[in-house]
Amino acid sequence: MQVTPLWQKFKQLGLLDKQILSLVETQADASAQIQEKRKTIVANEELLNRMTTAYKKIAHEVSLREADIAAALAKIAAKEKQLEDVTNPKQQVALEHDVASLKKSCNELEDRCLEQLTELDSHTNFMKHDAPALQQQIMQLREEIVAIERALQTTQETSARSKIDQDAIISTITPEWFAKYQEMKTHIADPIAPVIRDTCGGCFYEVLAQDLVRLKKNAILPCQSCFRLLYCDVEEAGK
């Protein structure tokens, strides 16, 4: 039965560590994207609700104001009709005063109505043009969230499998050697490094000749400069 050299186990463990770290960063980035898109959706929905409510309110107020104007015009017409038949000077003066007061009130209603109509036009333009665009953006954001969540699930599944593979390798490494590996991980993200062209693949410090001999015989030695655990993969060493 062929025994896997310790350096190969550490090499695989190092690759899995990098893969898991990358997957964790990818998951964090995906989660941040989802959170940001959800915030945008909430903001857009709040804006739509606020503008829709305001539009309905203004439209209702304009309708009431127009009804008030119509009622005021009807009163004015009725008073002016009465003036045509009045012969008593005092009654005529009183009616003329009423008509003037009604016309002033009607003018004020019309001015206010014009202001509200201008405001209503602005809200109507929003409802016709901006609201559909916001609704489309909300739909697109929801679709993007679904796509990101699917990718996130795939990433999580890949990470889970990688951790299983990692645990399987760790179970074959003696506690003493794994403790050394873990100790190095507290100081540096990539505690394992290959020998490349007789130098440390992490810091490029030249490896001593006697150490190279031992490394080529499947030994694992600390780099004299960065203290990474060095291994020699013959296929990589000459690259």
From the spread of the alpha carbons, the general shape counts as: rod-shaped
Rounded Rg: 41 Å
What is the CATH domain class of the largest domain?
Answer: Mainly Alpha
| Whole-number count of domains | 2
Strand runs, count? 4
Q: Estimate the helix proportion, in percent.
A: over 70%
What is the chain-wise order of helices and strands?
A: HHHEEHEEH
Mean pLDDT: 92
Q: What is the CA-CA span between the terminal residues?
A: 30 Å
Structural class: mainly alpha
What about the largest sheet?
4 strands, mixed
- Report the CATH topology name of the largest domain: Helix Hairpins
Proportion in β-strands: 5-15%
Low-confidence stretches: none
CATH architecture of the largest domain: Orthogonal Bundle
How many individual helices?
A: 5
Q: Reading side by side through the largest sheet, how are the strands ordered?
A: 2-1-4-3
Protein model, in words:
The protein has 239 residues and is mainly α. It contains five helices and four strands; from the N terminus they run H-H-H-E-E-H-E-E-H. It folds into two domains: 6-170, Helix Hairpins, CATH 1.10.287; 175-237, no CATH class. The protein has helices spanning 6-85, 89-170, 175-185, 209-215, 234-237; strands at residues 192-196, 199-200, 221-222, 229-231. Strand 3 and strand 4 (229-231) form a beta hairpin. Helix 1 packs antiparallel against helix 2 (89-170). It is rod-shaped. The protein starts with 5 loop residues before the first helix and ends with a helix. The mean pLDDT is 92.
